[in-house]
UniProtKB/TrEMBL annotation:
<dbReference type="InterPro" id="IPR027417">
    <property type="entry name" value="P-loop_NTPase"/>
</dbReference>
<protein>
    <submittedName>
        <fullName>ATPase</fullName>
    </submittedName>
</protein>
<dbReference type="Pfam" id="PF13521">
    <property type="entry name" value="AAA_28"/>
</dbReference>
<dbReference type="InterPro" id="IPR038727">
    <property type="entry name" value="NadR/Ttd14_AAA_dom"/>
</dbReference>
<feature type="domain" description="NadR/Ttd14 AAA">
    <location>
        <begin position="6"/>
        <end position="169"/>
    </location>
</feature>
Length: 177
């Protein structure tokens, strides 16, 4: 059986982490979003918002972490692995803020390919800001646009997950794989 490395993507507050947590509860192998981890680590060192203050450093750390997740996922014994956000997300966010980045960012997007990509649409009713999610809903819409453009640029067919209950969203994803 071929290994399926599946990425859940979407702008901030679309429900990705909630779905990953539910997939974990159902026994699926999942890798969490790591940007909060990078942000919290920087905050411990006195940098309140590393992405805002040093976006290239933040993005390099994130890219390396996501590459490591991909490599680990491809070694898992499970035939299906879900990942909360993928490598192209890093490029999409850099494009969103208008910063330049080294060629190895785009090379990583070309070298590490996910089996399937599920995109969660912006959903204002469930959107919440917190200490690590600084964007407002309008910014989340713009980020979503960059995510779609970036993933399509790298040849992905995005499968949109309908706005629905967590249960129905999970069933939709599982039905598509």
């Amino acid at each position: 059986m071929q290994k399926e490395i599946i990425v859940l993507l979407g702008g901030p507050g679309t429900g990705k982490s909630t779905l990953i947590n539910e997939l974990v509860a159902r026994g699926y192998c999942c890798y969490p979003e790591i940007s909060r981890e990078v942000t919290l680590e920087a905050q411990k060192r006195g940098v309140e918002q590393l992405f805002l203050e040093q976006p290239l450093l933040f993005s390099e750390m994130l890219l390396e972490g996501r590459i490591q997740q991909f490599k680990k996922a491809s070694q898992e014994s499970d035939s299906v692995v879900f990942i909360d956000r993928g490598i192209p997300d890093v490029v999409a966010y850099m494009d969103y803020i208008g910063d330049e980045y080294p060629d190895f960012f785009t090379k990583a997007c070309e070298d590490y390919k996910y089996s399937k990509t599920f995109i969660l649409p912006p959903w204002e009713e469930i959107y919440e800001s917190d200490t690590e999610r600084y964007e407002n809903f309008e910014q989340a819409l713009t980020i979503q646009k960059h995510l779609v453009e970036t993933y399509q640029k790298y040849g992905y067919d995005l499968i949109e997950v309908p706005k629905d209950t967590v249960e129905n969203r999970i069933l939709y994803i599982l039905d598509k794989i």
